[in-house]
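Might I ask for a little of your time on a matter of protein folding? What I wish to show you is a protein chain and, alongside it, a tokenised description of its three-dimensional fold. I should value your view on which stretches of the chain appear to form regular backbone elements. You will find the record immediately after this paragraph:
***
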Amino acid sequence: MIKQTGTGLVIRLAATYVGAVIGAGFASGQEILQFFILYGYKGLLGALVSAVLFAYLGAMALYLGVKLRAGSYQELLSYLMGPWAGKFMDILSLFMLVGGLGVMLSGSGAVVQEYLGLPQWVGVGVALLAVFFVIMHGLTGLLNVNVILVPVKLAAVCLIAGLALAARGLPAELPFINQHGVGGHWLWSSLLYVSFNMVVPVAVLSSMGRSIDKRTGIYAGILGGLGLGFAVAMVTIAGLAFYPHVTNYEVPMLYMASGVSASLRPVFALLIWVAILTTAIANAHGFASRLAPAGGKRYRFFGFAVCLAVLPLTLLDFSFLVRLLYPVFGYAGMALFFSLLLVPLWKFCKR
């Protein structure tokens, strides 16, 4: 396969990385509230740590994918964790991708039902059709749809956060209240946040090892990681401007958007749906590329099959699925997080 290069590919890869992370939890603001805002201004230190880690880990996943000429994340896991632990993490990651896809499709139905008053199955069906369309076009379809949708949702998140901050301004003093924050400490919370959000990107990015060169992968990983860190910081700052009232809402970004202008509500609903869609696409691609690294008919078959297999999950409540699965995903991802963070450095020093 001829390797692709160029600035356009860097941007598409970076957009794919961002799209795999910014899902319903991020766009709603609930993730940022729990992992960063509840730590007051120290949450901004956590945002800085997450930006550095996202940039490093994204670049490392792409670099190793190219080095190993990986067609799926299985090769990367074996390299990082050895054959036995890598096989266990491989199976665990498959379940996490399936569960994440089910959560995203359920979330799509919930958004359509809540904001448009339409039956939940309409939102699920539209999202399914969009995922099917991208899977039909393989890796090219994944990259192209992300380069269109991801900048839109990233810009929308930052715009809403910026307008909210301009409307309120930061308070001179902010109580440091962290008893409800994830992890109990701002630093551990930021590490958990990155761990929680790296499983899907690693599955997606490492599958591109046969299609890009090392320099392109490194630049894309850094660009995508810094973009994620910037978005985290913007939402955190905006949340601090609305603190402590923002802590009382299930969808903090909606509260902030409504505080600026009522007309932002439908924009925010669209933002949530786009965020859900791009993450659902990333999950489906990660699963299909693992079972059919070469793409083609088998790739499309597994992509379609996993979408149909998770339909029973869409009958469950979206918030219930988030509460049930997300904490499990976060702690399960710690093994991959520390392996990707430390093993390449250890092997380099040993060599």
Notes: The chain has one domain: 7-170+177-341.
